[in-house]
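Hi everyone, sorry if this is the wrong subforum. Our group has a chain we'd like a structural model of before ordering constructs, and none of us has done structure prediction before. Sequence below.
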Amino acid sequence: MKAILGSLLCLVLLAAECFAIKGGPPYPASTNIVGTCAGVLQPTFDPTDPFSANSLGVFTLGVPSTGASTGNFLMFTRGRVFGGTIQGVTDPNKATISALISATFTYTLNFTDSTGTLQTIDVTASVTGPLAAKVTPTRSPFAVSSALLQGSAVAYISNGGVQVNGDPTIDGTLSLQVAGFKQSSVDPGAGTLVPPSP
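Answer:
Right subforum, don't worry. Here is the predicted structure as tokens:
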């Protein structure tokens, strides 16, 4: 009887070793999103909107180990170059980035008033909207970047007009596809936002 129990115990121990986790806890590779990311925002082609074929956005985003993610954002649309920032938060458990893009373009508007006097006013056009992206690890051993970004964004474009109630006039909306990659795994630190020079 002792021999049978001993044999069964050996079988149980052998089976337990077969199901053991090797190499430590199974953390997903995509959770390490700390570092610097870069990407482009390309509009979805819409034949009814001529500006969808003539727009492009680029951004860099620093993702610190603590604090908000910040970076620079640049958008070319409607024949203008908008400069601004991108700010958001990252979820290391889901490997997602949720951010807001904001950029402006200031121009001078000349017009003649009712008395025939030339008037000059400065107008600030803007591009704002939400961005959502998923960070996925690169599985190829030949890949230069450790992770890729994929997602979508919406850009609300205003030429600087204001409605009677004070809300900005939205002159156009672009649906954008986000495609990017992780440039560096160095922690950029919190609060390193550097706005672009005017």
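For your construct planning: The two ends are 87 Å apart (CA to CA). Residues 11 and 17 are 10 Å apart (CA to CA).
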